[in-house]
């Protein structure tokens, strides 16, 4: 057992915040995902760790059917509510852990996951499972929090993420992502490191980050090297973050 209880607790308590989150529901990100995947009306898609359902709902508008899984029943209830609000009826919601899900091999044309891999306690196993249920020729899409390559960001920015969210495991740098992807039966079509800003205090409030952890996060940011400060500018209203995006095809 890894951090699954912590994930259920942290997300279960704050599920509606993730449904309402403008970060997760950002239409520009969702449109870029659709343009990369190019879903078709025959496709069956799997959304891993659906959270507030933004990815599943975006895909459902283009495909035949979506299965949306999450470890948190409260998050799934929010995702289902969001789909009803949009009159979407082709999503099946299921409580599953990505590390052990009960899904047969090669079932899906699309497997997608956004803003979730950094929670997975056994990332290699989770990624293998995602590939196992994808058909050969199927599309594999990930968008997740990332950090710049290098010892300082890989250590210090992950320390910040863990202070904010006790269920955080690792935001992988591009260097680490490429090591993980090399072991999977995938042909990489596209990767990119995207720079973003998190609005404060909204980013803290979404996870209920304690005041002393917020202060420690600013102490870490203030003590970054000169190069780190250029890559991770911040002020009272925002901090800088990076995301890694992947589109691949199953061999
Ligand atoms: C930030 S939310 C995901 C946002 C969502 N994908 C979107 O596009 O808006 C992260 C989700 O990962 C889920 N999660 C974390 N670990 C998981 C696991 N091992 N299996 C399934 N879901 C998991 C959490 O319950 C939470 O709902």
Give an account of the 3D structure.
The chain is an alpha/beta fold and 251 residues long. The protein has one domain: Vaccinia Virus protein VP39 (Rossmann fold), CATH 3.40.50. It is 41% helix and 25% strand. The protein has helices at 4-13, 15-20, 27-37, 54-60, 73-85, 123-132, 151-164, 174-182, 202-207, 211-222, 226-231, and strands at residues 44-48, 65-70, 91-95, 108-114, 134-146, 186-199, 238-250. It has a seven-stranded mixed sheet with strand order 3-2-1-4-5-7-6, with helices on both faces. Strand 1 (44-48), helix 4 (54-60) and strand 2 (65-70) form a beta-alpha-beta unit. The mean pLDDT is 96. Bound molecules: S-adenosylmethionine.
Structure ligands: S-adenosylmethionine
If you average the pLDDT, what whole number results? 96
At CATH level 3, the topology is: Rossmann fold
Described by strand count, sense and barrel closure, the largest sheet is:
7 strands, mixed
Number of domains: 1
| Helical content class | 40-55%
Q: Got a strand count? A: 7
């Amino acid at each position: 057992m890894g951090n699954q209880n912590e994930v259920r607790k942290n997300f279960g308590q704050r599920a509606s915040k993730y449904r309402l989150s403008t970060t997760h529901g950002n239409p520009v990100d969702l449109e870029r995902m659709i343009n990369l995947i190019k879903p078709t009306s025959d496709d069956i898609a799997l959304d891993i760790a659906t959270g507030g359902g933004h990815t599943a709902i975006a895909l459902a508008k283009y495909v035949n059917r979506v299965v949306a899984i999450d470890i948190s029943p409260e998050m799934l209830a929010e995702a289902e509510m969001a789909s009803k609000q949009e009159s979407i009826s082709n999503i099946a919601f299921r409580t599953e852990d990505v590390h052990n899900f009960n899904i047969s091999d090669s079932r899906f044309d699309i497997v997608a996951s956004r803003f979730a891999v950094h929670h997975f306690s056994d990332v290699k196993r989770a990624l293998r499972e995602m590939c196992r249920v994808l058909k050969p020729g199927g599309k594999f899409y990930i968008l997740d929090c990332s950090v710049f390559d290098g010892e300082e960001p890989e250590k210090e920015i992950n320390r910040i993420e863990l202070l904010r969210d006790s269920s955080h495991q690792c935001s992988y740098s591009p260097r680490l992502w490429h090591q993980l992807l090399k072991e999977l039966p995938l042909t990489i079509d596209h990767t990119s490191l995207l720079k973003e800003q998190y609005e404060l205090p909204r980013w803290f409030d979404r996870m209920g980050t304690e005041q002393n952890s917020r202060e420690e996060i600013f102490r870490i940011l203030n003590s970054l090297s000169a190069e780190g400060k250029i890559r991770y500018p911040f002020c009272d209203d925002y901090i800088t973050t990076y995301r890694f995006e992947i589109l691949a095809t199953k061999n």
